[in-house]
Amino acid sequence: MKILVMGSGGVGGYFGGRLAAGGNDVTFVARGTHLAAMQKDGLLLDSQIGNATIKPAKAVLDPAEAGVPEVVMFATKMGDTESAARQLAPVVKEGTSIITFQNGVEGPDIIRRVLPGADVHAGVARIASHISRPGIIEHRSPFARLEMGAKAGSRIVAFHAACKAAGIDAIQAENIDRNVWLKFALLAPFSGITTLTGHTTGPLRENPRTLALFEAAVREVIEVSKAAGTGLTDADVAGVMKVFQSNPPAMTSSMAHDHRAGKPLELEWLSGAVMRIGERHNVSTPTHRFIWQALAIDAGGKR
Questions:
Q1: Does the pLDDT at position 170 exceed 90?
Q2: Looking at the DSSP assignment, which residues form a beta bridge with residue 47?
Q3: Residue range 159-186: average pLDDT?
Q4: What is the SS3 assignment for 147?
Q5: In this structure, are residues 56 and 28 in contact, taking their beta carbons and an 8 Å threshold?
Q6: Could you give the CA distance from residue 24 to residue 19 in angstroms, rounded to a whole number?
């Protein structure tokens, strides 16, 4: 299958690498030292569930160099969504599907605005991975899953089959919007509070007051999701908290990694999105407003 990976970091680099190692025609869109390293030395997956080296790796700066793909795995940072979608205009033709695997809930709508008529679908990537060094994706967890819609058309069915053949844990969901928001109900609180405190999962859940703060943030996302009609219910609070309790003690968020590295944060698309969507539905989100205000000083990155 011919696949274009738009955003080759922890998510796109890892799953795109698995698909390439499985024999698919995968082109990675990247930039800077990560792009240079892939072009020179290939892409290495340093993973707890099995290493892989893709060499040579097809890596480009401009998607137009890749030709027309069957599927685009859209895995950029949320702040880059609009500009990345504009870059795709020359290669997104009839017969191409775009699946978003991003840290947020607003990506598909942004892409549809930029590329009217494009075949865009929401997806979910569940993985803790990041670029440890240029050309190397580090994955220190036994868990790595892709989720996509069950009713999204033949190209998505074929992509799902390609994932399974490459050894990826991939599922098709009857209500992908529910899956997207269920991930968001964990991700937005986890990203905000790990970044705000500088602590990983273990210490956060061992302190009763910090754990209560986390649960308050989860409840706010569930309330916003209910108002938006995505299929979540009050019962999902316990499910999200159970997942949090089961995560490895050393697990942290990609936003916390970015914060330590002085990079721009996805804050506006996580706690900021909870606030925006909540305001549209008259749902109060004071915990996420606090996270958003407290981290605003570093949202654009720092030295």
A1: yes
A2: 139
A3: 96
A4: strand
A5: no
A6: 6
Q: Quote the tokens at residue 100.
A: 């978003």
Q: Which amino acid is at 272?
A: G
CATH class of 2-173: alpha beta
**Span 25-49, mean pLDDT?**
97
Computed over every residue of the chain, the mean pLDDT equals 95
- Please give the average per-residue pLDDT across 64-91, as a whole number: 95
Residues 8 and 108: beta-carbon distance below 8 Å? no
Cα–Cα nearest to 219, from 168, 286, 280, 156: 286
The strand ranges marked E within the chain are 2-6, 25-29, 43-47, 52-54, 58-60, 71-74, 97-100, 119-133, 136-149, 169-173
Q: Which residues pair with 235 in a beta bridge?
A: none
Phi, psi (deg, nearest 5) at residue 113: -65, -40
Could you read off the pLDDT of 100-131 as tens digits, one per residue? 999 999 999 999 999 998 999 999 999 989 89
Distances (CA, A) of 83 to 66, 80, 113, 114, 115: 18, 6, 12, 9, 11
- Is it true that 2-173 and 177-298 share their CATH fold? no
State the Cα–Cα distance between residues 77 and 274, nearest whole angstrom.
Answer: 17
3-state secondary structure of 97: strand
**Could you read off the pLDDT of 196-247 as tens digits, one per residue?**
999 999 999 999 999 999 999 999 999 999 999 999 999 999 999 999 999 8
177-298 CATH: 1.10.1040.10
- Is pLDDT of 303 > 70? no
Give φ, ψ of 82 to 5 degrees.
-65, -45
Q: What are the structural domain ranges in the chain?
A: 2-173, 177-298
Q: What is the rounded CA–CA span in Å between residue 276 and residue 295?
A: 16
Q: Which of 283, 191, 291, 175 is nearest to 228 (CA)?
A: 283
Give the end-to-end CA distance of the chain in Å, rounded to a whole number: 41
Residue for token pair 């844990």? 169
Measured CA to CA, the distance from residue 183 to residue 202 in angstroms comes to 20
